[in-house]
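Dear U.,

Please find below the material for section 3 of the report. The protein was modelled together with nicotinamide-adenine-dinucleotide; I have listed the sequence and SMILES used, followed by the predicted complex structure.
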Amino acid sequence: VSSFEISQMQSGCTPSRPYYLGDNIRELFPEYLRHYYFDEVYLVTSEQLNARFGRSLAQTLGEADIPVNVLTIKEGELSKTWDTLSDLCERLVLAGVTKDSIIVAMGGGVISNIVGLAAALIYRGLRYVEVPTTMLNLTDGTLSNKQAINGAGGKNQFGTYYAPIFIWADVSYVRHEPLRQLKSAVTEAVKNGLIDDAEWFAHLSTVLNPTLDYVYDDLAGFCRDVVQSKLSVLRRDSTERGECIILEYGHTVGHAVEFLANGRLLHGEAVGIGMCAAARVGIRMGITPPEALFHHEQVLRAMESPIEAPREFEAEQILGVIIADNKRRGGDDPRLILLDDVGTVHSVDGDFETPVPQPLLKSVLAER
Ligand SMILES: NC(=O)c1ccc[n+]([C@@H]2O[C@H](COP(=O)([O-])OP(=O)(O)OC[C@H]3O[C@@H](n4cnc5c(N)ncnc54)[C@H](O)[C@@H]3O)[C@@H](O)[C@H]2O)c1
């Protein structure tokens, strides 16, 4: 088990907590949990994940004489609702959770988000541990402390910052993820290279292929590199108000395309498409060198991941969603994160978001 200290301070929540990473480390979990005082453990996961991984983790805790209760909640983006959240909170209280209990959230980002929010709310805050089972959650979601459910009008509308006491990242779970889902998470890793680490990006460009052999060969090593790449950005900006925004590279167009795709594109796939669009915008504005676009497309093609939005999405439609999103945030012109080059984000006076004229953006989106 290797460990890092995650120490960014966010909205006043726990300033420092350990992130434990390893491959097939289930047997060690009780020992690490025992660093904390608690009466009982409440493991929350989905039914599917409970059958796959939850039961054996609960059994390991039981064998170590740790009292454990297992609760399951529904899977999927559609269950990130007030109903699921309140139902979980009530069931935990009914099951006897106390201020001395520890909640364990086991699953992808959806489960993590719901359980993290429940932990923040019950008795004004219970301690909880993250056990991510998807690569996206392991390398991204669990590092940010952002807990949320969706509202009727959009994703992640209601939530708070709340940190787990530690993160237990056992990459052996990730090995069971569908390849397409894993590739989607790897695209976010590629993004970290594009915005902040040209050398690592160049390396990834030479090793990534459609079957992700490089990733599977040393899953723990790869996940460690991705986590470090995100942490190095987070450390420079502990509040996610300034430089952290660069982690949103590709997300302006990406979110719009993901929204229009209505489930047909995974998040990372949409971000890949969005990064290529951002590179094209950067070239038109004389900010990004043309070779950078070639590098974007090359690495995504190497994984057989999409580089362009599905043809049926008109530029007008994509732009419409971007503008609506933007209005909600109180902006005028769409603002995109652009690259000065691979590994370096463009900024003016410390502002990493560049206003892009709508006609230019529209013409780039029509360029297919
Ligand atoms: N808090 C944050 O900063 C943050 C960051 C990124 C994403 N998110 C949120 O996370 C969610 C997406 O998370 P996700 O990509 O982890 O998806 P997810 O939680 O929806 O899980 C996707 C699917 O993978 C399955 N699954 C989980 N682990 C598995 C495994 N080991 N093997 C096989 N199947 C497995 C699940 O059952 C589910 O069907 C979104 O709601 C997003 O808003 C939050």
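For the text of the report, you could mention the following: Residues 13 and 162 are 6 Å apart (CA to CA).

Regards,
Y.
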